[in-house]
Amino acid sequence: MTKLKNDTFLRALLKESVDYTPVWMMRQAGRYLPEYRETRSRAGDFLSLCKNAELACEVTLQPLERYPLDAAILFSDILTIPDAMGQGLYFEVGEGPKFRKIIRTAADVEALIQPNMDDELDYVMNAVRVIRHELNGRVPLIGFSGSPWTLATYMVEGGSTKDFRHIKAMMFDQPEVLHQLLGRLADSVTDYLNAQILAGAQAVQIFDTWGGVLGSREYREFSLKYMERITAGLLRENEGRKVPVILFTKNGGQWLETMADTGADALGLDWTTDIGDARRRVGNRVALQGNMDPCVLYASPRRIREEVGRILDAYGEGSGHVFNLGHGIHQFADPTHAGAFVDAVHELSAR
Amino acid sequence: MTKLKNDTFLRALLKESVDYTPVWMMRQAGRYLPEYRETRSRAGDFLSLCKNAELACEVTLQPLERYPLDAAILFSDILTIPDAMGQGLYFEVGEGPKFRKIIRTAADVEALIQPNMDDELDYVMNAVRVIRHELNGRVPLIGFSGSPWTLATYMVEGGSTKDFRHIKAMMFDQPEVLHQLLGRLADSVTDYLNAQILAGAQAVQIFDTWGGVLGSREYREFSLKYMERITAGLLRENEGRKVPVILFTKNGGQWLETMADTGADALGLDWTTDIGDARRRVGNRVALQGNMDPCVLYASPRRIREEVGRILDAYGEGSGHVFNLGHGIHQFADPTHAGAFVDAVHELSAR
Question: Can you list the residues of chain B whose pLDDT is less than 50?
Fold first, then answer.
């Protein structure tokens, strides 16, 4: 493998010394970029884009052509695993993801396929290999997966949801069925992330987009526990180098202390938590990633810079900070403003 | 005025001794009740229902006919104030609220009318008077308003929003314009709640539905500060009795300590915070209202009862707890399950 030219991101995740605070943006390959929209329209639908390694690589690299980002992230869908387990994922124009089969009973869980990484999910590993090759050591490549709880919400609701009606009915009334599903998912996610690591991912992030809709007790029992199990099962070293693990629970600010005890190297923060307070709460256990409100990108470059400075100051001295937005960049963000954001992080943090 | 027969709710808010934990449900007059849907269809659209005092009274009392609730809450819309300020609220079938005029500039804020409680908003006070009369001292009547920040999100976005794009652009780039708007709203909300109190409301709740989408700093500056100002301007006594004030910020669990310093009598909690932890954090300063996940009502009555017991135990001994859901009851909740919930609170908390 080619030598990594910029390892600032990996070093910061391991709290090793760095010359500046590294930065990337969740959903950095996305609709706010005209070149992304162009590739996407060539690909046809979203799933075809994810399943075509060359096009997935093309969109992964697009933000790196524009901005001096310190990491690339695999372009893929969060629902590849439920699809590979046999649910039949599809997208309807103007609507969110849908499944042909919906999971509601123990028998539905039983009938799920345990996916093979070299078969149903090989297209993802193929994309990782192509992207890693094309990156040519420029910056590290992040692999990712949805958390078991987050994946389960889509699998049980049959798509996106606002009220989490069916998954929570299952959680409160048939917790054993949900645990069975989450256990199956934890195994699949572990295999999936390990396969991404072996294919070339140099760090991995678990996206727990919907953990924040749970009560504290349910969060620990139905989301965090399974992320902990995955973390324990991951290859933490590959190609002679540590592979850091990042956990991100949106709206998880109340639970950072317990999240820091999972064995993950870093926690992602949304913007509702002050990063200085978060650092005091987690101590030396983990690095922190975040946490500017993506809506700051709607403000002027001057204001963006001010906000970046404020967050850097709040984090304070020392390594262990990866700058990011507190959630994915919005589709209406101005690409110039995203550039002002990345530059501000580098300039204001340079030591 | 008729003597209040059941003042358990008011006593618990003031941390006075009670024989059992009082309970009501946010959105208790709502679509989950067939009798509500029937009245609503007679009224025509939602706004006509709010503007007709007899029908608003009818739906307010409906849940009290079914369940032994300890409080009634005025049936009204959260957007009465922006409408009265001249924005022209309307509802389109199957869609959320919309405004004919949208607020984006200092001139737009300037052009808003300061509403008169005896004129543009008299229909609300009229509903309060009719409901209070019809309640005949059975239980106290709660008045309410949206918080300035929450109202501003609708006023600036032009309706409901998922990304808070325009209001946050204003917040980050033109904070002075937003402060001007929030100041106007704080004055109107103060007048509005005081008029409700004089018309007969015996407690008031400020709903900060969208405060939780802010960073900690922005929450204090753009939401909490204005709720504090309102709280300071409210009539805290009427008819020889204290009028308690409840603040509820959805997803505000990280900020309970600062919320407890506003001078409010009680804080509403959503279900993501453990009520025992919350009590330890706020100490003796405020009572707590909440906090069962409304999705528990999708589970069996046995499970609902178990969850009620768990929350009562977590709160612990002593007064200062008003039981509620952590958010409005969902439209698909089974009315029988809501009844099981109310009964469980009364039975399990009886001292």
Answer: none
B266 phi and psi angles, rounded to 5 deg: -150, 155
**B160: contact with A, CB 8 A cutoff:** no
Domain boundaries, chain A: 23-286
Q: B293, B222, B217, B215: which is closest to A251 by C-alpha? A: B215
ipTM of this complex prediction, to 2 decimal places: 0.94
CA atoms in the 13 A half-sphere facing the CB of A347: 11
Interatomic CA distance for residues A79 and A90, integer angstroms: 10
Q: Is B243 left (phi over 0), alpha (psi -120 to 50) or beta?
A: beta
pLDDT of residue B1: 64
- Give the CA-trace dihedral at B80, B297, B267, B149, to 10 degrees: -40
Asked if residue A327 lies in contact with residue B215, where contact means CB atoms within 8 angstroms, the answer is no
Q: How far is CA A186 from the centre of its chain?
A: 16
| Domain over A23-286 is classified CATH 3.40.50.2300 | no
Angle at B158 between CA B154 and CA B162, to 5 degrees: 65
Rounded to an integer, the average pLDDT of A95-124 is 95
* Interhelix angle B165-173/A301-315, nearest 10 degrees: 80
Bridging pattern class, strands A321-325 and A287-292: parallel
Q: Is B272 within 8 Å of A215 when comparing Cβ atoms?
A: yes
- DSSP letters of B148-197? HHHHHHHHHHTB--SS-HHHHHHHHH-HHHHHHHHHHHHHHHHHHHHHHH
Residue of A206, A285, A284 whose CA lies nearest to A243: A206
Q: Which of A298, A300, A303 is most worth mutating to test chain B (most B CB atoms within 10 A of its CB)?
A: A298
Q: Please name the CATH architecture into which domain B8-249+256-264 falls.
A: Alpha-Beta Barrel (3.20)
Nearest to B298 among A168, A272, A295 (CB): A168
